Give the backbone structure.
Amino acid sequence: MLGFLKNAEPNAAARAGFITSRRVGSAVIRNRTRRRLREIFRKHQHEISTGVWIVTIASARAARVPFDALEDEWLRLAGRASILAL
């Protein structure tokens, strides 16, 4: 799930937070999932509108899919939320 909030400062950089519950797996798996999500955000941060705060809640399935599939899904959700500046 991807949620977002437009910041009061429109020129501020986009910020992101990632939530992984214990349903995702052990601490090692949760941390790996968060690292993968942070890398996706870092890779695409210049494509995101300025002044947006993003919260991504990882499902248990997120830990099992390959990086490319996770990236595609995150970009699809970001596109549906209309936060991509493209």
